[in-house]
Structure formats: C-alpha cells, structure tokens
C-alpha cells in the first residue's frame, strides 16, 4: 500500500503504491496506511522531514467511489472524516517539513493530501491534471479541499476548481498558487527533498499560510466587500444554472462562506458535516451509479457477447453524406480509420467532407487543433459516388433518407461489393431493424447503429439488435463504437427503440399539458425546473412538430385499429395540418423566431389552446404536478421497455437517457429516479396519475410486482 524509507539525513519518503492497480486510490485501507505511516514518521525522532510521493505514473487519482457509494452510516462516516482532519492538522503543525512530489495527475483526495503538505512541487508532465472532480458526481472535496484551496488561491480562483470540477495543468496550478514549483519530469522528488533539506538547514518551523500570524485570504474573505460581491454573484449564477437541483455546488459555496468566516479547524468541521450530508444523499448515489459505474461498464463492453475475437477496423463505408453521415465520418476519421463517404453524386459526397473541413477548421482557428492534424484527418475521408469504392470495408453504415425503399436499395448495392463477413448497419431513427434486414442477403450481419445529432459530438450510440442479428455482429459492432470513442447501449428491436420512444413521451406530455389548458410558459419552465435541458414545447420545435405529426400518422397506419390517439397527436395535427406551424425549421412552431431578436412563445397559442386558469389568474395545476408528470411519464415508458425486453438492463436505460437526451443526472436516470422514490411510492404516484390523466401513466406489471415483493432495480 505504502513504501516507507528513511535516508542517511533523516528524510523519510512515504510512497503511495496501491497494490494490483495502475492508479493510487484513496479508501479506508490506503488512508489508514497513510495515517499510520505519517504518525510513525512524526513520532520518530530520527525522522527530520518527510517527502510524500507515488510509485505509479500519477500521484493519486482520487477517492474510491465504490466505498463512497456504499456508505450509509452517517455518524461513522463523520467520525472517520474528522479523524482524517486531525491527522492532516497533526502533519501541518508537527514541526517537521513535509513536501509532496507530484509526478502526475493529482485529483480529488490526492490533491487534498498534497494541500496538507507544507510544500508541493509538480513534474512538468503535459498529461498531468490537478483539481477536484467531486462536484461532477454530486460530492465535495471533503478532506479539507473547500477550506484549504480558497485560503491559498482566493475564493475567485477556487470557484471553478471546486464548483465546476475544472482540472488544470501544472503551470496554471503554480500560477494561481496551488502548488509552489514545477520542475522537469523526474526531478520532482529531488526538488521536494531539497526543499525539506533547505527548511531543516534554515531552522525555521514549517507552517501553512493559514497557521501563520499574518494569515490573509488572497483577494479578501467572505465578509469583505469584494468577497460578498463574489459570493452573491456565484449564488445567483448557481441558481440560474441548476434550479437548485444539485446540492453539491450549493454546499461547496456554503463551506466556503461559513468556513472562511472562521478559523481552519472550525471550517473543517463545517465541511465534514456538508460532506457527510452529500455522501448520504440520493443525488450523489445516483450520479456515482449512472455517471461513473454505469458508464464504466458500458465503455468496458460488459454486455459484449463473449467468445467473439475483438475486431479492429481499418476501412468503413458511409452511405449518405448528409448531416448524420458527415458527423459519423468525422468521428471515424478521428479514430484513425479510413472512411469512404458515399452519396448519390460526387458533389453531394464532397459536401459531406466540406462539413468536416468547416467543423475542424473552427477548432484550428481556436488553437485546439493544428492545421496539419486537420489535413491528416481529412485525408482519411474519401468522398465518392461509386459503390466499387466500398470494396474492403469491414463495416458499412447507412444514413440515407428515412425511406424503406431507398434504404433497401443501398443495402443491396453495398452488399454486392463488400466481403461476406462485413457488417451492414443502419442509422435509422424510426424504422424497425428486423424489417430493414429483409433487404439484406445476410441478415445475421445486419444491425442498427443509432447515432445522435450532431454525431461528431454526441457520445451515445444505441445499438439495435434485429431478430436475425448474430452475437458476432453485435460484438463486432460494439468494438466499432468503442473504437470511435463512443458509449454503446444495446437494445432489442421495437418501434422507436428505447431512446426515441422514451424521449418522445417527454415532448408528448408537454403537448398534452398544453391541450389541457396549462399556460405554455409554465410548461416549458417546468421542464427546466425538472432538470431537463430544454422545455418540451421548445424541444418539439427543435425536432420539428412535423416529425411528431408524421410519426403519429405512420403509427396510425401501421397499427390500424390498435392505434390509440394521444393528445400530442391532436396538438401536432392542429399545429401542422391546420396552422402550418412545423417547428423551428419553418420559422414558426410553438415559438416565433423573428429574424431580428430572440424566439418567444407564439401569442396565437392562447386562441387555439385556451389556458384554463382560476379566478385569480393562476394555473389549475401546480408546478410540482407538472414536473412530476414530465418526469414520471419517462419512467413509466422506460419500465415498459424493460418489461418488453427492448431494454436488457436498468443501467442501460439510465446511461442511455443521460447521454442520449441529457436526462438530469441528479435523478440517476428514468430507472434511477424510481429507485430514489422507492418502488411502492412510484406505483402509488402512477396510480394517481393514471386516474387523473389516463392509461399512459398506468404502472407496468413488472414494477407493481417488484414493489409488492420488496425488490429493487439497484442494490
Ligand atoms: P440528411 O437528409 O441530412 O442526409 C441524407 C443523405 O443521404 C443526403 O445527403 C442524401 O443525398 C443521401 N442519400 C439519399 N439517397 C441516397 C442514396 N440512394 N444513395 C446514397 N445517398 C443517398 O439526413 P440525416 O439527418 O443525415 O439522416 C440520415 C438518416 O439518419 C435517416 O435515416 C435518419 O432517420 C437518421 N437519423 C437522423 C438523426 C438526426 O437527428 N438528423 C438522428 C439519428 C438518426
């Protein structure tokens, strides 16, 4: 766990060396070992000073999230944290100089250990990052970070580090005063040791700035005019951005304000309370489960069929050089894979490549990419109108128009050229894969790879397994998704698959609320307050109301008598067929889009969907009820997807929702939210809403049974 040695001059080296892992992590075991070793060194008269270092390529990657995620005993947790604070104070006030040699990335608890040393020197390692990612998982730097960082660098410079989880490079960390020096890589231990030796030679007692008589917070403390101003602005900005859905940044701000109003020791006690509160909160448990463990599992391809050799890709074919085709081509080229970009004419194919040039060009302009790197990437994209160029492709992805006949035609033409083993994937957003595979001569090699727009940026790919799709095709497709750095979830074939189907319920519920007479401004604001990035009506405009209308028509045609008309279908029909308001693309939807100003709600909505308000002018439904409906409608549909085995695992639902349509992570995901509510409570809410609003809220049998048996989706 830790290596410990003492040299001839009495300078001890305490080296983190977590067994069996490539990174040092902090948990009960490694923190216990550190405490024991440091206490021994402080008590040993033969030890004059201490260097803290790492045997791995980085210093310390952070805390053990499995341990934090599992913590449930608040009193025990608070006791452990307080003991940790006492140890750090003993090191700071122990009279022996202690220096940290930071050879690589130093994050979270690792940075806090370093801050608890008198001196910090970092290697000039371009890959190393310094900071506190805790807030991104609903936590705060709870080993003194909220107290030591602002006391060192000032509240202003501390804010992005603590409240946004911003990671910085060594030079910047030195510039703001979080570390003392940066030296050539490999020299950091020597420099740390030198500082210890110099301090011993000078005979001065090592002290942290906050323990000196002259202690002063850079830029002023919380009760100075500048500090007050900064805190007020930070508070307001936080509320505007998060609608107070995320307790972590709010608690961090409280730690800074309350903690810096007093001395360090009281500040640490304050921090320990807020930290314990966050660790025990469902928000951090949700974020750790979905954003960390769920994502990690998906990226490790935990659900990849076993026994299929890993496929490496060198040449991919892309049919359709439109918006999606160009984006997928960019992602593929970025991964170092050649891509044949095919469209109906050479000119249309070239247009797709031009899109890539334009997007990458912006990055070159901003200094994020060199011109040579851009040329290298562009050289991998081969625009063409000739199917013969697809020869040798290991995989062909189709993103032509959303028309069955066109998709069938390009499938046949491509399969005539590519090898018998090659995979054919469709990026369709609505057409069932099993049906499209009928055009294929080898349906076992046919699969759905559903990208999101803009494809070069969006991290999720929904992989759709058709009836005939083989395990080998699935496994090899997953290898492609990972090769281009995206996160896959695997779903079985069905109408709307998983993401479009559940995402669609959010938009539809907004439209149903409008038909009921809820003021549109209230509906869209409720969406934001619920934590969604965009209100449902604004979103309908973005994806186009026409699309909602067309999907409704198609579903009606496909299902015949089994089709049940929804409020959203009536609203879409009125907007599109009667009023010609198709959404943003036509400049008119639920909103107006004036050329000379920001969009605003279309005043005509009041005439076509008269608001039902009480005598006092307020809506007949409360904000909380709207939020509940907009969120729960997604959960009900997600459970149906699990019940129908469209989804294979609850965690896929949660990861897919967060990455696919920016579902609010604080809720964990549509399933994570049911877990948070408690399944019996969720069923009761659904029963109430089903009575009020109709069967779309009816609790699925799966959920009812689980609730009755006391079962859970997650441990
Ligand atoms: P688009 O209209 O921007 O591009 C389609 C391209 O296909 C055009 O360049 C067109 O010239 C080309 N094309 C048409 N017929 C062809 C043929 N026979 N051979 C070769 N090329 C042909 O459309 P898009 O938005 O890129 O969507 C493409 C596909 O991706 C559709 O199936 C769509 O449902 C799906 N999709 C779209 C989104 C989205 O947000 N736009 C998201 C996921 C999936």
What does this structure look like?
With 715 residues, the chain is of the alpha/beta class. It has 3 domains: 2-280, 2-enoyl-CoA Hydratase, Chain A, domain 1; 315-494, Rossmann fold, CATH 3.40.50; 499-620, N-(1-d-carboxylethyl)-l-norvaline Dehydrogenase, domain 2 (Orthogonal Bundle). The longest helix is centred in the last third of the chain and has 21 residues, at 623-643. The mean pLDDT is 96. Nicotinamide-adenine-dinucleotide (NAD) binds at residues 319-325, 342-344, 348, 399-402, 406, 409-410, 427-429, 450-453.
Q: What global shape is seen?
A: globular
Main β-sheet description: 8 strands, mixed
Ligand types = nicotinamide-adenine-dinucleotide
CATH superfamily heading of the largest domain: 2-enoyl-CoA Hydratase, Chain A, domain 1
Strand content: 5-15%
**Main CATH class of the largest domain:** Alpha Beta
Number of domains: 3
- Name the poorly predicted regions: none
TL;DR?
The chain is α/β, with parallel strands linked by helices. The protein is built from 29 helices and 20 strands.
Topology:
Layout: E1 2-6, E2 11-16, E3 25-26, H1 28-43, E4 49-54, E5 62-63, H2 65-70, H3 74-92, E6 98-102, E7 106-107, H4 109-115, E8 119-123, E9 130-131, H5 145-153, H6 155-164, H7 170-176, E10 181-183, H8 188-202, H9 225-242, H10 247-260, H11 264-280, H12 282-299, E11 315-319, H13 323-334, E12 338-342, H14 346-365, H15 371-378, E13 381-384, E14 395-398, H16 404-415, E15 423-426, H17 433-436, E16 446-451, E17 460-465, H18 471-483, E18 487-492, H19 499-515, H20 520-529, H21 536-543, H22 545-559, H23 567-578, E19 591-592, E20 600-601, H24 605-608, H25 623-643, H26 650-661, H27 670-677, H28 679-693, H29 701-709
Parallel strand pairs: 2-4, 3-5, 4-6, 6-8, 7-9, 8-10, 11-12, 11-14, 12-13, 14-15, 15-16, 17-18
Antiparallel strand pairs: 1-2, 16-17, 19-20
Helix pairs in contact: 1-3, 3-11, 5-6, 5-10, 6-10, 9-10, 10-11, 12-26, 13-14, 19-21, 19-23, 19-25, 20-25, 21-22, 22-23, 25-27, 27-28
The structure holds nicotinamide-adenine-dinucleotide.
Residues 319-325, 342-344, 348, 399-402, 406, 409-410, 427-429, 450-453 line the site of nicotinamide-adenine-dinucleotide.
